Amino acid sequence: MYKIDQSTQVQEVALKSTIPVGINDNCELVSVGRYTASNGSDYLGFLFKDANGSELKHMEWDVDPARVTPKPGESVDECVTRRINQMLVRIKHIATKFIPENQFVVQGNNFGELVDSIVRLLAPNTFTGKKLRLKVVYSYNDYCSLPNFAPFVEDMAKDPSGLKINPKYDKMEKSTAAVEAQVNSTDEADLPF
Fold this sequence. Notes:
By secondary structure, this protein is of the alpha+beta class. 23% of the residues lie in helices and 22% in strands. The chain has helices spanning 76-95, 111-121, 124-127, 175-184, and strands at 22-36, 42-49, 55-61, 132-138, 144-145, 153-155.
């Protein structure tokens, strides 16, 4: 049965907004933790906020060999190793903004142990109040996200900034916006029907 009445609540005001695409100054890491998704998979989650209170969640997942696509000439095992290494580089890139590189040493026999080690090392007292600069791009499915490859975060004290937008690799426009622009610029003569 379908019914709309006074008990049907509508959220009229957005509670949070997302840190926008581009280079964003004065951001902070506000939490790091191990979380469980609705499918039961654990992930490492980083939550960033900018000066306006907008948020960006960055998640790192265990690499599932059944879900990787090897490059030509690459075995599944080589692909898994490459993807794990890329993930470890992203994690180290974030963590070493708060912990000296020579002190950031973590390991685990499995993904869960690795995440727990990272969370222990990145206690709130290591990152609270530290101002960062974040590079935010659109993901393949048009969500604001950190790029897959470093550098994407740096200390605000770094001058000049080493973060750059590369239009060749950084997705700065939603795919849906590009499609809309193409449709809007099409006249009747271009239509196939």
